[in-house]
Amino acid sequence: MIITKDNYFFYSPGEIRYERYQTIWLIACVLRLPEGEWPLEPGNVGESQHSKPSHAPYEGACDVMAELRKRLELVPEDAREALIDQVQGYYDEFNRLIHYEFLTSPAQRVLNYLSVKRRRKQTYPQWKYDKKRRPNGKPNI
Question: Which is more confidently placed, 24 or 49?
Fold first, then answer.
């Protein structure tokens, strides 16, 4: 992760582990880009070719975005759109990422569902229902 002096966050596709703030960054900065594109690293004017990669440069971006879209598809459209609208709207207005604490409770729940290393086997409604039934309230992954 790179943080510039103006608080711009940057993650390469290989760094993505779907932690909360990485997921917020993906929704704010990458989700709206055309398939296979990735934001440029701050201060990088061109591609450096220290060694020839064994895959196409857009493959990592495509893999990350395909995974994010699969995760988002497991969430009902209204909840999904609420999270996307809050994250992208805040970024458009203030040119910075929204903090988790400033999201509404429903958007926080969706983000918690999305932000795990491996994609959940349950859909969002199943996960939400099971979470309410557990005595300690902690979700099973």
Answer: 24
